[in-house]
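Tokens help. One example:
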Amino acid sequence: MKLPRPSKVIAVHLNYRSRAAERGRTPDAPSYFFKPPSSLSASGAPIVRPQGCELLCYEGEIALAIAKRVRRASREEAARAIGWIAPANDLGVYDFRWADRGSNLMGKGQDGFTPIGSFVPASELDLLALRLRTRVNGVLVQEGETSDLIFPFERIVADLSRFMTLEPGDIILTGTPAGSRPLALGDTVEVEIEGVGQVVNAVVEDSKPLAPIGAMPKLTDDVRADALGTNNAAVPPISEETLAALGAVSTATLTTQLQKRGIKKPFLAGLRPMRPDLRMVGFAHTLRYVPLREDIVAADKRELNAQKQAVESIKPGEILVIEARNEEGAGTIGDILALRALRRGAAGIVTDGGVRDTPMVASLEMPTYYRASHASVLGLLHYPLETNVPVACAGVLIMPGDLLVGDAEGVVVIPLLLAEEVAQDAVEMELREEFALERVDAGESIRGVYPLIDARRAEYEEWLSAKRLAAREVGASRNEKAESGPMSVPARNGVPDS
């Protein structure tokens, strides 16, 4: 149905309870932003991702169109002004959030960033029971009902009409449910309103580079976390000192410290290190495999499947964590992709499935933890479905961005909020255990030293002071040598390629 051309397109920020829970805040009143009418497109039109951008996210939404001019409408008048309903996709590139400062103009206002399907008269629908679904490459990624809305349609229309005249044809995007995530080049995204219709569009890259006249794409850890749905404003940055401390203590010690804080099963059981001589500390970059289904594989036309996307997007200091359902009957990664991950700066690989090409992978200066060796390719059993989503690896929930530590015994996951205090207490715990080991090795009983009792604490403190003094003297000696001549510094593994 052809509608009057809209004078404006207005979008609601947070309006589904599931999305508010995902973001960690529920608004008391609706808030909005504008999208230009030039952002509108139809089903089948390409979604053009600018060159240099990584995080183009879908947001399946219900679009409503105004049927008659309204100003300062009551909620009843606002309900009568809703003329039509259609599925829509409120696309946005997070790469421009730094420059938008809340306007969303560059991130969400680009040409073609509001695909909308065919409109259906609102009078033919139950607006309180509409079901919205978003699929990417045929896989359901978002689902919501209008019963989950924080602010119903008529309240939004009435609220907006307090400040501006809504004209016939004006479009309001009414919010997205939880589950918005980045799209990859070649992905096809479909937004459907049950009983109304759908809008289907594929992602392509702009054929022309973005002219460097104004703001250019730029990402921060916070923006990336927002796009991936993992942001938590309460999580402070992890200091280099904390990372160094975690890299120096055992996973056994860390497991004990986490269990004291209520994290009962942080250890990824059943995995073995390919390189027991290497330590691992880094942040989870997740990849999820599901059981192979031939028709889904045949329908996947992406240039890079989710496995290759994960490898090609991993950042320095991140660990590729693969959920493979504890299935040992095929490899989940081999030598070429493992080497590519290392060259991009990966801090390690963790999989609860098999690894192929293990002699070559074992030669890489990168920690790899796995369940078994298997020469078969992953396509025998696995389909790489999605990246940077919560995964279950070796029976443990791993969130994108979680902190992982690995040693010769295995891998432990550490919630970011607990990282600093766990690191501090783990170092102290290992010092007390080192004191106990020395005393037991000298022939003493474990009584009084394991655990340490108050009567032996002064002795322990004296031992600790001597140990720290010796460490300072060693450090001073090293500094003198460095000042007197050049010294060899080992290169950092996995410097990312250009």
About this structure: The domain at 9-207+218-225 is CATH 3.90.850.10 (Fumarylacetoacetate hydrolase; domain 2). Residues 447 and 453 are 9 Å apart (CA to CA). The chain has a mean pLDDT of 89. The chain has three domains: 9-207+218-225, 264-414, 422-479.
